[in-house]
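Appendix B.2, paired examples.
Example (i):
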Amino acid sequence: MSKLESLYQEVLAELGEDTSREGLLDTPKRAAKAMQFLTSGYTTDIKEVINGAVFTSENDEMVVVQGIEFYSLCEHHVLPFIGRCHIGYLPDGQVLGLSKFARIVDLFARRLQIQENLTKQIADAVEEVTGCRGVGVVIEAQHMCMMMRGVQKQNSMMRTSVMKGVFRENQATRQEFMQLAGL
C-alpha cells in the first residue's frame, strides 16, 4: 500500500468508517489514484504540453478560443470548481496549435488552485509560449466549496479575468475580445 493510500485509509477510519467493509476495501487505492490524476499538473511541464506546436504565421488579428471546459480543486477545501475558460491573443509572428490552449488550461487546473491564480497562470503561459502582443483570459466557474458547504448557494458563478499587453492597454481590443468570446 502506498503512503497516499494509507493516508486515505486513515482519513476514512477517522471519519468513523469501517475500512474493512466490502464497499471500502479498494477505496484508498482508488482515491489515491484519482487524486494523483486530479493533481497531475504538478508533474507536467509546459514544454511537454506545447510539444513544438508554435507555428510561424503572418496573421496579426485576434485569435479567440472560447468555452474550454475544465475542473480544478480549490486549495482551501480540496473541493472541485468547474467551469469554462476563454482565451484571446494577438499573434506577433507565431500562433499556437489549437489543442494546446486546452492543454495549457488543464496543466494549471490540475493543481490545488484558486481561480484568480489559475486565470493569471494561463495568461502568463500563453504570452510566454507565443510571444504575442497581448492576451486576455476569462474564467467562469462554479465552486463546490460554496455550493456544498458554507453558504450553500447553488447558482453562484465566479468570473475572473486577466488582460495583458494590448488587451490591458487598449479598451477597444479588450472589448473585441469580450464580444468574440461571448461575454
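Example (ii):
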Amino acid sequence: MTNTPAQSRAQAQWYSPTPLAPPGPVPDDRTRRRVRAWLGERTDEMAELLIRLVAVESENPPGRELGRCAATLRDALAGLGIEARLLPVTAAPAGPEDPAVVRATVGDGDRLLYFHGHFDVVPAQDRGQFSAVRAGGRITGRGTADMKGGVVGMVYGAVAARELGLIDDGRIVLHLVCDEETGSVAGAGELVARGLIDPGALAVLTAEPSGGAIWHAARGALTLRVDVRGTEAHVGQAERGVNAFLRMLDLVRPVERYAAELAGRPTGFATGPDDPPGSQLVIGGLAGSGANFNVVPGTAYFTIDGRFNPEEDPVVEERRLRALIEEAARETGTEVTVVRTQLQPSAATDPGHPAAGVLARTVAAVEGVPARFELCPGILETRWYARHSVPAFGYGPGRLDVSHGPREYVEEAALHRTAEVYALYAGELLG
C-alpha cells in the first residue's frame, strides 16, 4: 500500500508550520524593479564569473582542483565586498585535492537565512566542456546547470539584497561545499561536524537545477556493492572452475524483479512532468569480473543504487534487498558479500510552512506563473539542514535533463531570475 505524503512523515524528515513573522506583500513592484535593474547592470560580470568557475576542473570523482575552486570563489566574493573563510575538511577521504568549504556572511542581523550550494561537478565527457561558451543567451559547459550557475545566482542574489538594503534585520550565510556529487560527507558533513548549521534559521535555499520549480522534498538514497566469489580455472580446464560471473547473474535476476516492483509504487508527492513517480533502482552501474579473457572468473561484483520516494524507508528496503540476494545465494551455493556504501534519508518540508508560502509567492512574481512544489527525483543536500529542523527548498536556474550531459548549459535569463528570487526572498524574510 502506498502512503500519502502525510503518512510518509515517519520515513521522511518532515517539518510542519512553525511561527514566523507574517509576510507582507511579496514582493512589491518597486523592489522588484530595483533588484532587476541592479542585476541587469551586472549581466556580463555574472557570466564572466561563471565562465571562470567552469574553467576550474573540479571533477568529483576523483575530487580534482577542489581547493583551487574554493579559492576562486573566495576571491570572487572578496571582489564583491564579502569576506569568506576557507574551512579545510577535517576528515577528508584520500584522493580529493585540498577539499574545503567556503563560508561567508552577508549582513549582521539576528534573523538567519542560508544559501547553500556545491562547486564540484560530475566528470566531463570531453575536456572541452571546461571551456565555457557564451552564445545565444546560454552559457554551455560542465557544471553550468549543476550547479556553478546556481552558485553564481545565489552569490549575486545575496549581494543585491545587501546593496539594496533589503536585509536590515538579518543575515545570509553562504555555504559552498566541495563534494555533493560523492555523498557530501566531506562538505555538508563538515558543516555539521563543526556545528555550523543553526536550527533557528528561517530557511535554506539551494540553487540545484530545479528548472523553475520549487523542490520541497527529495528522495532518500541507498547504494550497495555485491561481491561474488567463485573458483578460477584455465579455459582448457573450465569445468574445474566456478564461474563467479554466471553466479552473479543468478543474484541479479531477483533484484531486477524487485526494481520493477519498486518503480510501480507511485509517490503521493507532486513530480515533474518527465519524472517517474516510482522509486528508481540502477543495477550494475559499476560491475566487473575475472582476471583475463581465458580464465574462468573467480570473482565478480556489481552495484545497486536506489533513489527512494519519501514514502519508502531506505533501511527497510536495504533489508529486503539483502534478503533477496542472500536467498538467491543459498539456492545456488554462492559465496557473496554485500557492503553498503551509501545511506541517505529522504527529506520534505511542508508546503504549508510560512517560509514555503513566502517562497512560492516570490517565485510566482518573478517567473510570472504560479509556483510549483515538486519532489526532487534525486537526493538534495537540504537533508543536512532538515536534520536540524530548518525548512529547506531547492530552486535553481538549471535543467535536470541537461545536467551531467555533454551539452550542459544554463539560460542567462534563468540565472538572473534565480538571483532575483534569492534577493527578494532574503528581503521578505530578513527585511
